Structures are given as structure tokens and as C-alpha cells.
């Protein structure tokens, strides 16, 4: 589904919330995107976690 969004819309930034990705098990970002992930501390299974993917040409300040 994410690949379809990328194909049709070609976004510079993709933001996902409530990702519930366990620490150290981050998925690979989509092709030509850089991934950034933030999990709430002290959660067995994340809640309120976010993932942000930016096009490789996008300048990002953390």
C-alpha cells in the first residue's frame, strides 16, 4: 500500500504514526528514501511511535 502511494503521489516526506515497531527491528525504508524512527521509552510494544521517510535529496536537520 505504501509503494502504491509512492508510485502515484511521489511524496517528499511520508509520516507514519502508531507504528509499533520494536526497538532494533526497523524496516528498511522504501527505495530512494531515508528512514527516521522514534519510539516512546519503556514500552514493551511501542505505542505512539512514529516513522518518517524523506526522499534522499531532502535536507533533514535532526
Q: In terms of per-residue confidence, which ranges show pLDDT below 50 for 5 or more consecutive residues?
A: none
- Mean pLDDT level: 80
**How is the biggest beta sheet arranged?**
3 strands, antiparallel
Fraction in beta strands:
25-35%
Structural class: alpha+beta
Give the CA-based shape. globular
Beta strand count: 3
Distance between the termini: 28 Å
As for the number of domains, it is 1
Radius of gyration (CA) equals 12 Å
Strand arrangement, largest sheet? 1-3-2
Helix count, DSSP H or I runs of 4 or more residues: 1
Order of helices and strands: HEEE
Q: Estimate the helix proportion, in percent.
A: 10-25%
* Oligomeric state, counting identical vs distinct chains: single chain
Task: Please characterize this protein's 3D structure.
By secondary structure, the chain is α+β, with helices and mostly antiparallel strands. It has one domain (2-55). It is 13% helix and 27% strand. The chain is built from 1 helix and 3 strands. The chain has one helix at residues 2-9, and strands spanning 13-17, 33-38, 50-55. A 3-stranded antiparallel beta sheet has the order 1-3-2, with no helix packed on it. The longest helix has 8 residues, at 2-9. The chain starts with a helix and ends in a 7-residue tail after the last strand.
Amino acid at each position: 500500500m505504501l509503494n502504491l502511494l509512492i508510485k502515484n503521489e511521489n511524496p517528499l516526506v511520508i509520516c507514519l504514526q502508531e507504528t509499533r515497531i520494536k526497538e532494533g527491528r526497523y524496516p528498511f525504508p522504501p527505495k530512494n528514501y531515508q528512514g527516521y524512527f522514534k519510539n516512546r521509552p519503556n514500552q514493551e510494544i511501542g505505542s505512539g511511535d512514529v516513522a518518517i521517510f524523506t526522499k534522499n535529496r531532502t535536507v533533514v536537520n535532526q
